[in-house]
Specification:
globular; 8-stranded mixed sheet; 39% helix
Length: 269
């Protein structure tokens, strides 16, 4: 197990592979396991640094409200500890908020940026679909049943039916690695804090100079892929790739296609 002291906390990380550093920032409530299907392929090309955000996994979960800027500073402190002046940064969903904050506040630390299934906050982003909201806020049934429903709506239609063994494995992982309730609430505050227009990233993203890949599952019902066009509209050096037949959790649903897109982007001249 590997830990680093950064920004006043202890952060858990894992290193895989060799090459240009690529930091993977997971989404709300998830630890580095979120990337486990992508890491082997990425590690053939890069030094992959997978982290548990503060509030999840094996990292510290200090009390209080978290912000994207706070967690971006955690990543920068980790880069400092490793002696890395720059890295590629990939953030998924809530991790995409952290990646945006990092690119805005620490532009010199970002080589290339990948925004994965995320949005820029504020009143102009495309919100979660009515279908997904209804499922994710339905508290009926036991916890396993609720988790199974949540996985179903967060993935492309038909994924859970076609992959029952993986879904059972996913549920088993969550059962044996339960979410820290206080840490989850602190992380949830990140997205909520970005809802006011003044706090959103939209007006600040035009200053991001890093080449940016905007990567979405075409069937994402949690963060609709129309947000990709909105992000591209304000990021001056960006392009979009949509992964067909994948939803919000494309790192589980389509790791091969996601890796191919990431590797193409990070290795092109």
């Amino acid at each position: 197990m590997s830990f680093v002291q950064t920004n006043g906390i202890t952060l858990y990380y894992e290193l895989h592979g060799r090459g240009s550093p690529l930091v993977l920032i997971p989404g709300l409530g998830y630890d580095g396991w979120m990337w486990h299907k992508m890491i082997p392929g990425l590690a053939e090309h890069f030094q992959v640094i997978s982290i548990d955000n503060r509030g999840s996994g094996q990292s510290d979960a200090p009390a209080g409200t978290y912000t994207a800027q706070m967690l971006a500073a955690d990543v920068v402190g980790m880069l400092d500890a490793f002696g890395l002046p720059q890295a590629h940064i990939m953030g998924h969903s809530m991790g995409g908020f952290i990646a945006q904050a990092l690119a805005i506040d620490y532009p010199e630390r970002v080589d290339r940026l990948i925004l994965s299934a995320t949005n820029f906050g504020g009143p102009h982003h495309i919100p979660i679909t009515t279908e997904a909201m209804a499922v994710l806020t339905d508290l009926s049934g036991d916890p396993i049943e609720r988790l199974r429903r949540g996985i179903g709506v967060s993935c492309a239609p038909g994924f859970t039916e076609a992959n029952p063994k993986f879904v059972d494995y996913w549920i088993d992982y969550r059962v044996h690695h339960p979410i820290n309730p206080a840490g989850y609430q602190s992380q949830l505050a990140i997205g909520l804090s970005l809802l006011p227009e003044a706090a959103a990233f939209e007006s600040r993203l035009p200053q991001v100079a890093a080449p940016t890949l905007i990567l979405f599952g075409e069937q994402d019902r949690v963060v609709p892929p129309a947000n990709a066009d909105l992000l591209a509209g304000v990021l001056p050096h960006s392009r979009i790739e949509l992964l067909s037949d994948a939803g919000h959790f494309f790192p589980f649903e389509a790791p091969g296609a996601a890796n191919a897109a990431v590797i193409r982007f990070l290795t092109e001249e």
